[in-house]
Amino acid sequence: MAGAATPTASESPGRTRNLVLATATSVACFWAWNSVATLGSYYVQHLHLNPATTGVLVAMPVFVGSLGRIVVGTLTDRFGGRAMFSFVLLASILPILLVAVGGTISSFALVLGAGLLLGVAGTVFAVGIPFVSAWYEPARRGFATGVFGAGMGGTALAAFLNPRLVAWIGYFPTHILIAAVLAGMAALVWFLMKEAPGWTRSNAPVLPKLADAAKTPVTWKMCFLYAVVFGGFVSFATYLPTYLRDVYSFDPSGAGARTAGFALAAVLARPVGGVLADKIGPKPVVIIALASVALLAWVVNLQPDGEVPAGLTFVAMAAALGLGTGGVFAWVGVLSPQGKVGSVSGVVSAAGGLGGYFPPLVMGATYDAATHSYSIGLLLLVITALVALVFTIFGIRGRTKAQVVAA
């Protein structure tokens, strides 16, 4: 059996270093994964895209990044985090370079295809959850997965830096820089990262493991909740630059800075959600998060006027989504059987990614250019969050703090 919950793993020196390395890897991969979305305005201008086509373009990396997590999570149980982190980092380099070429020659087809391949960077999440869970005892897995989940701060990095880098050094050199970061991070992981003591390779065939994960009731319950909270974060983070341009008339740098603030708020809230789940149980955390998302999505739909009211609304929305992602994955880390954390988390994180794939398509297709309104998409988010809230309250049994520790 894997040594995920053994005292040896939890007390071993080096777990902080490995958690930091895993989180840094996630930052680099999220930066690459969101490189297309954060330059949406550039592609609109140079590729002459309409809102619907823009929605398709920014959603492409999310699609592969979501489905790929299922397989990558299961392979992590077999090959370990060190090997799979290295693979994801190196496999993301060619797509980012193809995106650079496609944008330089103004080829929509090449950017779209390369963006699809770039989805491999988004599979990093399914590697990190089982890897960091193996280093920490169940009572602290909310903390561990929350800290690792803060690696989605790469989204904030991409939103803030990419438009500025394009202005400072040019479009093509910006992508070369991202590729260099991926390569450097791969070297650090390969030479410095180690598996948790007691971790053993799982040689079970991939398809039966996925089928077994699919038969676990907690898998599908967590899939639904994670599709709402993490999917909400991904869709906002990828489409927000376009939204801010269309609704509030921000330029690319201004929209990027505000999107970075949104992502940063979610990043900071995610470990808080994990720690709170360790202390009071995941259910109350997820309930608070979903209720806040529903309320704030309604407020966003009202298009609050003024920098401060609008800014605070989006920051609060990000914090609610971040809190929810931390709470949901604390549930996953505790309830997943030993040896199945990778396969279960792979399926759940795939659902989260798919939850972020469809909203940009809906937003682009339902945008009302006459009124500069995305009301239909936002009202659908309100309804979805309310359904998830009711499901959490009545459809999932909660756990007390003591029960979480015992699990």
What distinguishing features does this structure have?
single chain, 407 residues, mainly alpha
Strand and helix map with partners:
Elements lengths: L6 H5 L3 H19 L1 H4 L1 H8 L3 H29 L1 H11 L1 H12 L3 H10 L6 H12 L5 H9 L4 H16 L1 H22 L13 H10 L1 H32 L3 H29 L1 H20 L5 H29 L5 H26 L8 H21 L5 H6 L1
Structural account:
The protein has helices at residues 7-11, 15-33, 35-38, 40-47, 51-79, 81-91, 93-104, 108-117, 124-135, 141-149, 154-169, 171-192, 206-215, 217-248, 252-280, 282-301, 307-335, 341-366, 375-395, 401-406. The protein has 407 residues and is mainly α. Helix 2 (15-33) runs antiparallel to helix 9 and helix 18 runs antiparallel to helix 19 (375-395). The protein is globular. It starts with 6 loop residues before the first helix and ends with a helix.
Question: Brief description of this entry?
Answer:
The chain is mainly α and 407 residues long.
Order of helices and strands: HHHHHHHHHHHHHHHHHHHH
Range of strand content:
under 5%
Based on the coordinates given, report the CATH architecture. Answer: Up-down Bundle
Helix content: over 70%
How many domains? The number is 1
| CATH homologous superfamily caption | MFS general substrate transporter like domains
* Radius of gyration computed on alpha carbons: 20 Å
* Averaged pLDDT: 85
N-end to C-end Cα span: 16 Å
* Secondary structural class: mainly alpha
Ranges where pLDDT stays below 50 over 5 or more residues in a row are 1-10, 399-407
Overall form: globular
Describe the biggest sheet?
none
The top level CATH class name: Mainly Alpha
Number of helices: 20
Provide the CATH topology: Growth Hormone, Chain: A
Give the strand tally. 0
